[in-house]
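Two records follow; treat each independently.
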Amino acid sequence: MTLSMAIDLEKCTGCRICELVCAYHLYKNFDTRFSAIQINFDLFRIPIHYQIKNQCDLCQELAIPMCMSFCVSECLHLLRG
């Protein structure tokens, strides 16, 4: 079974916490340029756009990916397929 990540754009606030925790998980820093998830939020452009890069490992060593654990709007979901 393959897992992938999806974002419910109706719930996403654009806070970018997922980017911060992802960058920390992958590279032990908080530079969002290194995050596997990229949220492109602009107050003048709706909806929010996002990209999940190939380097996303869904935090395989954890029961729940860090981005999902820290997401305050609960907009991140795992898709099984």
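The next record belongs to a different protein.
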Amino acid sequence: MTVWWQVPPTAAAAGITGVALHWREFPSGWDPAHIISVPLPAPTAEGAEAATTAQHVFTGLNPTSTYEFKLAWVDGAGVSGPLSRPMAADTLEAGCVPKDGAAAAKPKSSCVVQ
């Protein structure tokens, strides 16, 4: 599962160096061991601006489970600002893919076993 987010164009100028990505398998509690530091993407060429999105790829998640994610900006002094509201996503059944091949917004029942 890939979790991605928008990076404001002013993030680097504001001293933001990355995000603290919190995650949990719902309904378990938020665990401090489940916080991942994700640096902002670097500019791809000299003088270029940094990317406008960042992402983290999760592997090894349990099938047919709900996960929640929230993030906070990080600067040189640590966490900078409040956590976002939680965002939820469901994993599909093992060995199944959505019928139309799209990964978004299809209920688990739309999977076909391959």
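Discussion point: The beta strands are 2-6, 16-25, 35-39, 53-57, 66-75, 78-79, 87-90, 96-98, 111-113. How would you locate this feature using only the token line?
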